[in-house]
Amino acid sequence: MTIPSSYSHRIIQIYGDSGKLWLESLHGTIGLCEDLWKLKVADPYNLSYNYVVATSGKSAVVKVCMPGDGFKSELNTLIHYDGDGMCRLIDYIEDKGVLLLEMLQPGVNLKGLDENTAIQAISSVIGKMRKLTCKIGQAFPNVSDQQSALLKLANYLPHHVKPIDRQIALQGHAIFKTLIATQNEVYLLHGDLHQENILSHGHDWKTIDPKGIIGEVEYELIPFIINSIPTFDIGNVIEYRINRLSREVGADIERVYAWGLCRALLSICWNIEDDLAVSEVDLAIIDHFRAKTNDQFGL
Description:
Elements lengths: L4 H33 L2 E5 L6 E6 L3 E5 L4 H13 L7 E5 L4 E5 L3 E4 L5 H16 L16 H10 L9 H16 L5 E3 L8 E4 L2 E4 L5 E3 L1 H10 L7 H16 L3 H21 L6 H13 L7
Antiparallel strand pairs: 1-2, 2-3, 3-5, 4-5, 6-8, 7-10, 8-9
C-alpha cells in the first residue's frame, strides 16, 4: 500500500499528533483488512481526509476513517439505508474505523456532466432516501447542532476574513435559528450531497461518503447548488439549479435561499478550521444568497 506524502502532510496539519499516530497505524489496519476479508488493496483514490482504496479481484472498496463521531454517523447512515440510494455496506471493523463498501461501477460522478443529467440524478437519489423515515431515538446528529459554528465565525471574522462583515455571520445565525424552529418534514439526510458524492452504478445513481444528519430536504440541496459552479456565470447557475431542484423534489424555494446563505457561511467556517483559503467564488455565492433571502428571514 502507498500513502502519498501530500496526504500525510494534510492529515498531520489538520489533526496534529493524533493524525500522525493514525497514519502510523494505517499499514497494520490495511493488513488486518486483507487477512480478515481475503483481499488485496490497490492504489488509493484521490484522498482528502479518509484513506480509501480499491481492492484487487473483488468489487469492493476499503475506507479507513479517522475515529470519532463522524465515522459513527457514517456507519449508522450506511446501515440505515442498506444500499437504497447509497453504496452498500458489506462489513466493518468499528474499533478501527474501517468500512468495506460495494464498489460503484462505472463510478462516474456528476462533476462535468450537463446540468439536466445531474439534476435528474440527485433528484432520483433524494426521492429514494426520503422514502425511509428515521426512527426516533437513533444517534444521528441534527442540523441544529451546526448553528454554534456561525457564532464562532462571527467572533473570528473581525480579525481574519476581511471581505466578510461580522454582521453577515450574525444575520446568518439568526436565520439559522428561524429555519430550525420552522422545519417541516425531517429525515436522515446524506449531509454533503454534492456532485462528486453521487456516482453512476449500472443504470442508476448512488451516493458515497454520507455525513448522516437529521434535517429537511431544503438543507440537503445546498451542497449541490453551490459546488462545481463556473466562475463566469455564478448567479445564473445557482438560479437554474434552485428553480429546477425545487420543482423536482417539492422544496420551498424561499427556504432553499435561506439555507443557501447559512450553508455558504458554514463552508467559510469549515475552510477556516481546515486552514483553507476563502475564494472570490465563496464570497460571490454568499452575496447572491443574501440578495435573494426573503425579508421574513431577517435581511
